Amino acid sequence: MRGILQVLAICSVALAAPSQLERANHVVHERRTAAPVGWVQSHRADADHIIPLRVGMKQQNLHMLEDLLMDVAHPDSPTYGQHWTPERVADFFAPSESTVSSIRTWLSDSGIAEDKVRLSPNKGWIEVNVTVATAERLLDTEYHVYKHPSGAKQLGCHSYSVPEHISDHVEIIKPTVHFNHRVSEDPTRLRKRANPNHLGQPFSGQGPKTNGAKIDAAFSLANCDQFITPECLRALYNFSYTPVATAKNSYGIVEFTPQAFLAPDLDLFFQNFSSTQIGQRPTLVSIDGGKSPSFNFNGESDLDLEYAMVLTNPQPITLLQTGDLVEGAGFDNWLDAVDASFCTFQGGDDPNQDGIYPDTLPGGFNQPESCGIVKPPFVVSVSYGQDEGTATHPYAIRQCNEYGKLGLLGTTVLYSSGDNGVAGFGGVCENSKGVDAQGARAIRFNPGFPGSCSFVVSVGATQINPGATVNDPESACEQVIFSGGGFSDIFSMPSYQATAVTNFLAVHPPPYSAAQFNNSGKARGFPDLSANGANYVVAIDGQFELVFGTSASSPVVGSMITMINDARIAQGKGPVGFINPAIYSSNFAPAFNDITTGTNQGCGTVGFTAVNGWDPVTGVGTPNFGKLLPLFLGLP
Length: 636
Ligand SMILES: *[C@@H]1O[C@H](CO)[C@@H](O)[C@H](O)[C@H]1NC(C)=O
Ligand SMILES: *[C@@H]1O[C@H](CO)[C@@H](O)[C@H](O)[C@H]1NC(C)=O
Ligand SMILES: *[C@@H]1O[C@H](CO)[C@@H](O)[C@H](O)[C@H]1NC(C)=O
Ligand SMILES: *[C@@H]1O[C@H](CO)[C@@H](O)[C@H](O)[C@H]1NC(C)=O
Prior knowledge:
Its cofactor is Ca(2+). It is a single chain. Helices cover about 25% and strands about 20% of the residues. It is built from 17 helices and 28 strands. It has a domain at about 240-320 and about 330-340 and about 375-635: Rossmann fold, CATH 3.40.50. The strands form 9 sheets. Strands 11, 12, 13, 14, 16, 20, 21 and 24 form an 8-stranded mixed β-sheet that branches. By secondary structure, the chain is α+β, with helices and mostly antiparallel strands. It starts with a helix and ends with a helix. One 2-acetamido-2-deoxy-beta-D-glucopyranose binds near residues 238, 624, 626 and 627.
């Protein structure tokens, strides 16, 4: 600390009182609206503790991202499918020279030695290891240690500031106000024992818990309304396809520790539903210390892998196991890990960047991040999410743009849309100012992120109605969970959905005020499509249980897209990448089963209602694989 102050004094000879000067002209850059859900502030962070500070710099050309994505993803575009190379993506969006030098000058003027400051290989971040005391001075903030009931700890602050002239060059700075949100915080709430009748009951904050009761029933196509199996899904979605190009294809499933699969559970599932797969395992990619198998929390991982593996057999599945058992991880961590091609990119011969490789800085805080350890799979399904209200806008926007870049590269990113209808996790809603609230003031809907990002495919949930068969129309899911859906408070309406969403709002105006949701007709609506999310038979902890949620819907849709990619690859074509512009187009409408019944209640309302055409409950509907495949095969 003393050393840094001395350097500072030398660098700023002409300037009186450096510390005051730095704080003058500081402007608040990011501030949390509420305490991080589930985390409790414990104590001030140790001033000497070293943290890896990362400054996410303002990128260039982001205003063009949506149009460029349409160029490669809209079925009418002459350049459909002409995905970008990672080098082109990294170069095109890299921060300007003046941004990079402004940040460098700010840091060196603040007493940080220039040789400690590193530009990330993807050019988006400036990285430097500093003490907590230095970070507090740079950002005019206080760091605290926060604790989570799971035992996890995280360092963070409530808000931070940067000098005004720097503000325009910065998107976000980490670690600061952003918290790792594990979505299946209480995974047991997705489970229930066989046959309790929850139909029509509002979701309670606690949700059902399993008591480990075993399902004793013969599964068959005749009782898919009570037990969903891979066979039911194949029948529901006209989905039968055996892949032929598995070596060239890829399908990734992201899991956040402490969620992890159990190998005996996979085998138990295979034994009953796909016996030739006994012994098959996903290919583990460990990100930031992620290990598998783990213990205790197996529901989400078992569900995702059992269904994805059987529905795409024999396609190998890549398991992106993210986070260690101590700290866990957030969405940024898996994004960093698939940055592979960005990280190996040498970035030309700019001498400014030669300092990047190798990293010789001794000592320090934690181990290096898992950056660029795996090529982005062509399809990635993530059954986790967080409330928009718990993310700052700069954080959500920067991350959303990364999904857009993955789309440019040809990857389809699917996120489950949430299980609480128009409410947030645990049924939480907001006051009219957009802050989490309780009771009568909790009137505002709480959209789920990243599903609300315009550059991901948001997947909602449907159900087979009780007593109905796989040949009858499904409804929006109203058993145990309600399909997450609504309108973003952060993202504006992308062009690809403008016709569908505008039509919905005009023909079926929701009976809610602007205080309840962004009803301007300019906000991003979600989900984009849906698939069954009720009564999944899943082998968990040695027995079969029923599981509910958009968590189930996302890997099922991902499996279908992966098989479509297989057929395209077999014809010498590329993967489909970002599918939203295609699935909203009129040509593709016949390839979806429009869902026209059911609602997604929450926040003391019935929520939105499924209607003809797109709706903020089930999107454009559920896929009919047999019809979808030739449409995608017909594209270049
Ligand atoms: C910070 O320290 C860690 C741990 O020693 C090291 O792996 C990392 O590369 C350092 N980062 C920078 C920017 O020097
Ligand atoms: C799984 O298969 C075994 C062996 O065929 C059978 O005895 C058992 O009933 C099946 N389990 C379920 C839950 O259907
Ligand atoms: C509604 O969404 C649009 C598009 O994102 C935005 O411009 C507008 O400010 C939002 N309205 C309110 C009241 O937040
Ligand atoms: C199922 O897909 C096939 C093409 O594989 C198509 O001919 C058929 O019409 C589809 N069935 C239904 C019920 O949509």
